[in-house]
């Protein structure tokens, strides 16, 4: 039923995703004179986390680059890479005037544009308009579900479904950019329900690797009565109390302690009141984070005088770090012709295992999107005019095809389909609780991995495929399960506490564990240590000396693989 009117297209570069990273990648590729198609799960310009609200941008003026670079390296706790941090800062600062030329209006002070944040809906509207201007073909409501591989192991395009036309589609391409976001496990965090880890599963099936997946447990604060808006800035001026009204503190040296709220919520209900905000602060946060105040207005609550219950929502890798492992400066992956950008890519070079949420995330999307787009265009050109005539095969497995039923002669297995919604609930039961995902331990991780393994075996069965929605949701259930397994398997093997990765049985940071963890595998999971060889903290010392030339070419990151 789905294949009768299948759509077949071809391009030099296919970009998968619909957020800032995807838009920048498509524009950068088109700027190289190649044909570009971009496919989005939703409507490019309104779907995704960036389009849902405003965001800061890590784009300091050049005189502040050294300071910001030093701070980002410090936050990364010796796992970030100074050369990549500088690359991101510089590329972002140089790119924002383009957005202004395309029609976005940044606020002005003393006649000069202040390019430190963006209003998501308008920002994404401008990016979409620019893509149409340069001739990029956009397929909305068209989630990509699997990659195509040529006989030589290089990527050759992708397949997916179009909801509104009730059909499959195939796009043959010389190169592909995965920029379809991270994974928030359908937690209802604002704008994140399109972020279900599809790109991570697609990359691994094609032969790619992931990295730093242990940093996939970022939680964000939200009001409990409308648990979706995860903008934490206003809560920096809150007083916290328990059910009885007792003050809970929550601040260290005047700043909100990030570990306070998770530990407090494990003991009982927590309430917040924004009574620390001065009139000047109120004016700023209500303007820059206006969406945070909509739940209060709808409920008729004055957040400055009334207590409201608060909670934490899992944002996973969206504000975490883990993602597809990058292998070169053009954001290439282990698979020839496959590139990754934005939240789909591991942000370990920028953040270590810490969160890159907010300004760093926005800068990472702008810069990696362009590097990946140019890299993909260059690769596609190298294949010549016959690139899309290569013999190619689809790589999708769980949730699309049933290896289990193919191996079994039992007629019951060939007809019975697995319950996608039940699979999703099972994954969430292991990923949402703070006592499992925030405070980790060996036994807890092993228990969760055993349950996730059972779910993974279930999605090897027969997927329901009566409608395009059935196909999409079956595949989504498989992706969520796969990402959860990789996250906990990586967490099990990093036996220390570092940044967002907290091990109750290993509470200290181990200076000898200065490596990234690559991971992958479908039926059998694996982890590999990629040791960091550059001199410890050398970039910070060079910055302190005040020499711009000293940090322009710091030691290059190299890795040594151990089994």
Your description of this structure?
The structure is a single chain. The termini are far apart. With 563 residues, this protein is α+β, with helices and mostly antiparallel strands. Helix 3 packs across helix 4 (82-101). Strands 1, 2, 7, 8, 9, 10, 20 and 21 form an eight-stranded mixed β-sheet that branches. Among the domains are: 7-212 and 320-394, FAD/NAD(P)-binding domain (3-Layer(bba) Sandwich); 218-315, Flavocytochrome C3, Chain A, domain 1, CATH 3.90.700.
Highlighted features:
single chain; 563 residues; alpha+beta; FAD/NAD(P)-binding domain; Flavocytochrome C3, Chain A, domain 1; five-stranded antiparallel beta sheet; globular; FAD-dep_OxRdtase_2_FAD-bd; SdhA/FrdA/AprA; Succ_DH/fumarate_Rdtase_cat_sf; steroid dehydrogenase activity, acting on the CH-CH group of donors
Q: Would you give the CATH topology of the domain at 7-212 and 320-394?
A: FAD/NAD(P)-binding domain
Number of helices: 19
Major sheet size, sense and barrel closure: 8 strands, mixed
Overall pLDDT confidence: 91
Structural class: alpha+beta
What fraction strand? 15-25%
CATH architecture heading of the domain at 7-212 and 320-394: 3-Layer(bba) Sandwich
Number of strands: 24
Distance between the ends:
46 Å
CATH class of the domain at 7-212 and 320-394: Alpha Beta
CATH homologous superfamily heading of the domain at 7-212 and 320-394: FAD/NAD(P)-binding domain
What is the 3D form? globular
Instruction: Work out the helicity level.
Output: 25-40%
- Unreliable spans are 537-563
C-alpha Rg (nearest Å): 23 Å
Region (Disordered): 388-418
Protein name: Succinate dehydrogenase/fumarate reductase, flavoprotein subunit
Organism: Nostoc flagelliforme CCNUN1
GO molecular function: steroid dehydrogenase activity, acting on the CH-CH group of donors
């Amino acid at each position: 039923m789905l294949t009768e009117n299948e759509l077949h297209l071809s391009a030099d570069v296919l970009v998968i995703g619909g957020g800032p990273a995807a838009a920048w990648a498509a524009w950068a590729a088109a700027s190289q004179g190649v044909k570009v198609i971009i496919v989005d799960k939703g409507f490019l310009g309104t779907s995704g986390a960036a389009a849902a609200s405003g965001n800061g941008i890590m784009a300091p003026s050049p005189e502040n680059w050294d300071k910001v670079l030093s701070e980002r390296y410090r936050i990364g706790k010796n796992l970030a890479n100074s050369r990549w941090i500088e690359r991101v800062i510089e590329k972002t600062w140089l790119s924002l005037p383009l957005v202004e030329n395309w029609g976005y209006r940044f606020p002005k002070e003393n006649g000069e544009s202040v390019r430190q944040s963006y209003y998501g809906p308008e920002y994404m509207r401008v990016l979409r308009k620019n893509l149409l201007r340069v001739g990029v073909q956009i397929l909305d409501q068209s989630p990509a579900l699997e990659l195509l591989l040529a006989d030589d192991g290089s990527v050759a395009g992708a397949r997916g479904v179009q909801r509104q036309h009730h059909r499959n589609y195939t796009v043959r391409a010389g190169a592909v950019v995965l920029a379809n976001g991270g994974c928030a496990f359908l937690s209802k965090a604002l704008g994140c329900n399109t972020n279900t880890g599809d790109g991570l599963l697609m990359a691994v099936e094609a032969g790619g690797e992931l990295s730093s997946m242990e940093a996939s447990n970022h939680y964000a604060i939200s009001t409990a009565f409308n648990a979706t808006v995860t903008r934490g800035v206003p809560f920096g001026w809150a007083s916290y109390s328990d059910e009885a009204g007792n003050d809970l503190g929550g601040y260290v040296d005047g700043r909100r302690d990030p570990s306070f709220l998770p530990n407090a919520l494990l003991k009982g209900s927590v309430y917040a009141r924004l009574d620390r905000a001065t009139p000047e602060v109120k004016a700023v946060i209500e303007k820059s984070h206006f969406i945070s105040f909509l739940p209060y207005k709808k409920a008729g609550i004055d957040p400055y005088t009334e207590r409201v219950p608060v909670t934490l929502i899992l944002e996973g890798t969206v504000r975490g770090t883990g993602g597809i492992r990058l292998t070169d400066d053009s954001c290439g992956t282990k698979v020839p012709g496959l590139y990754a950008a934005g939240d789909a890519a591991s942000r370990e070079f920028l953040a270590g295992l810490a969160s890159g949420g907010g300004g760093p995330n926005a800068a990472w999307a702008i810069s990696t999107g362009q590097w990946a787009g140019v890299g993909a265009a260059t690769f596609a050109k190298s294949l010549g005019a016959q690139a899309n005539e290569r013999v190619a095969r689809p790589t999708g497995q769980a949730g699309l095809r049933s290896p289990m039923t193919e191996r079994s002669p039992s007629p019951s297995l060939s007809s019975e389909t697995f319950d996608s919604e039940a699979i999703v609930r099972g994954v969430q039961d292991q990923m949402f609780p703070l006592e499992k995902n925030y405070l980790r331990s060996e036994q807890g991780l092993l228990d969760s991995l055993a349950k996730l393994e059972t779910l993974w075996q279930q999605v090897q069965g027969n997927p329901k495929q009566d409608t395009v929605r059935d196909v999409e949701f079956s595949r989504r259930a498989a992706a969520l399960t796969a990402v959860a397994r990789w996250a906990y398997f990586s967490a099990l093997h990093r036996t220390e506490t570092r940044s967002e990765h907290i091990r109750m049985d290993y509470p200290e940071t181990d200076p000898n564990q200065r490596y990234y963890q690559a991971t992958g595998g479908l039926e059998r999971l694996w982890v590999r240590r990629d040791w960091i060889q550059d001199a410890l903290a050398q970039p910070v010392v060079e910055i302190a000396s005040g020499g711009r030339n000293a940090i322009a070419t710091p030691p290059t990151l190299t890795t040594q693989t151990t089994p």
